């Protein structure tokens, strides 16, 4: 099929996830001509179709249908729906995705951002070829490019994935039924989120992690509290042990054998140990670019690759791989590309883990403060101490504040429990504005609220300072 030459663009974005969307819209708002190339037949990327939105929607559906948040009052046998099916979960998922898809389409259309569906690959540093499903192709050129193609689950060659009994987090979304038992390999964010969600469905869950350090970037006291709570809920965790083999049995189950000889059998195994960049089809060598061992692209502080007019942002550049940071990275790319200097501030950003219950954090951990020899004081509050926590029937939840004990500046906020990913933004504002302990002591909070835990924790820290 003949290749057709198209007009030149100011910015070509490869990938329509959060980073790509924000970059293209920001460029358009600056009066630039931007286009998005998306290889799939729908826009939105991993965040909308297999990652952020689906997993969080499933979580909410599970919490609602199981009556999870009401069990503190009505007992652990309480159920809103006794028999929960995949169709029950998918109904809410489909509605949410379609709504978000329509929102994205309208945003792009309103800002005159063009979208072409096809596979993009560089033919030289200033040109890409877009191959469409119908066999046709076209060449596009631009002053600037953004690679925002995201990542996909890593699938080791020695594991026999069939997307039925052995799958990954993406494959899990296509399940036709709910298993009675699941083994999850990898206790990173994705593994922990799905393990706790499935456990809430009363599926027998075994979580195996080769490293002994679970979620190493989270404050250790928060993790200890979280893991103790999970054990009370029946989740089985095995960490610090390597996997010897994963085998399907004649009966259709999966046997996971550890190096110490232990065997764990389940109906389904979900492999969540790592992700790799979606870069293999980009023809990066024609643009003078390469990738690391995880197929990720290296960038500088402005998200420029080794070829200055080619940027990369989002999960394809690695940590922190959050939808929120990806959006901001994409926006910064467009501003910097077109002369509106904008430095990235990826230091004090909130992290959210949508497990059951949630975990969220911002700022320094105790370990970091100790390593940097910064004097600090801790203030803690448990959600059960708040009237709102009692009203909600919460059985767990903890807020931990870290203050500089010399000048009383807030240095870190760590939360585990109901609505943590919302509550964290109070601490974020105080840290960003260089607020101190007295902010919490002297300001009035709505009553009753879980936000009141900030005042309780601050009073706890103040008490420690007086001793």
Provide a brief overview of the structure.
Helix content is 32%, strand content 25%. It has 3 domains: 3-152 and 276-337, FAD/NAD(P)-binding domain; 166-273, FAD/NAD(P)-binding domain (3-Layer(bba) Sandwich), CATH 3.50.50.60; 357-466, Enolase-like, domain 1 (2-Layer Sandwich), CATH 3.30.390.30.
Please describe what this structure looks like.
With 467 residues, this protein is of the alpha/beta class. It has 3 domains: 3-152 and 276-337, FAD/NAD(P)-binding domain (3-Layer(bba) Sandwich), CATH 3.50.50; 166-273, FAD/NAD(P)-binding domain; 357-466, Enolase-like, domain 1. Helix content is 32%, strand content 25%. The protein has helices at 18-29, 45-49, 52-66, 71-74, 86-110, 169-172, 189-200, 220-232, 323-337, 366-371, 387-392, 420-432, 437-442, 452-466, and strands at residues 3-5, 9-14, 34-38, 114-117, 119-124, 127-131, 137-147, 151-153, 166-168, 181-185, 204-209, 236-239, 243-248, 254-258, 263-266, 268-271, 275-277, 310-312, 351-353, 359-363, 376-382, 398-404, 410-416. Helix 1 (18-29) packs parallel to helix 9 (323-337), helix 3 (52-66) crosses helix 5 and helix 3 packs parallel to helix 7. The chain is globular, with a radius of gyration of 24 Å.
What is the topological layout?
Layout: E1 3-5, E2 9-14, H1 18-29, E3 34-38, H2 45-49, H3 52-66, H4 71-74, H5 86-110, E4 114-117, E5 119-124, E6 127-131, E7 137-147, E8 151-153, E9 166-168, H6 169-172, E10 181-185, H7 189-200, E11 204-209, H8 220-232, E12 236-239, E13 243-248, E14 254-258, E15 263-266, E16 268-271, E17 275-277, E18 310-312, H9 323-337, E19 351-353, E20 359-363, H10 366-371, E21 376-382, H11 387-392, E22 398-404, E23 410-416, H12 420-432, H13 437-442, H14 452-466
Parallel strand pairs: 1-7, 2-3, 2-7, 3-4, 7-18, 9-16, 10-11, 10-16, 11-12
Antiparallel strand pairs: 5-6, 6-7, 8-17, 13-14, 14-15, 19-20, 20-23, 21-22, 22-23
Helix pairs in contact: 1-9, 3-5, 3-7
